[in-house]
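Notes from hallway chat w/ T.B., transcribed later so I don't forget. T.B. wanted the structure written out for a chain they're using in a teaching module, and asked if we could keep both sequence and structure tokens in one place. Agreed to drop them here.
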Amino acid sequence: MKKTEEGFELHIRPRPTETVSIEIPEDTLESLKKVAAGRDMSCQALLKFYIGQGLRQDLTKLFGNRVLETAAEVLAKHIQSEKEVSEIMEEIRVAAVD
């Protein structure tokens, strides 16, 4: 079982993969190689890490937006005032940021 630096266990399950080719500026690639070496990992592993990290952040935002949309739809079914629904949704957004 692999563990992160923080001591979390990593559960890696094999998944189908596909090879892709991307163009990266040479200076960026050199920087990636330096960072990868500093983390004792391959450049490919570092790129996968960065892609996964960014993807998780974006998926989290998408999920959060979908939850807010659903909440607004449910509130609209139960509350007749659009103004009141808007005020509640704004309160939720503000509270979620704090």
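Follow-up for T.B.: The chain is about 65% helix and 5% strand. Might be a good example for the class.
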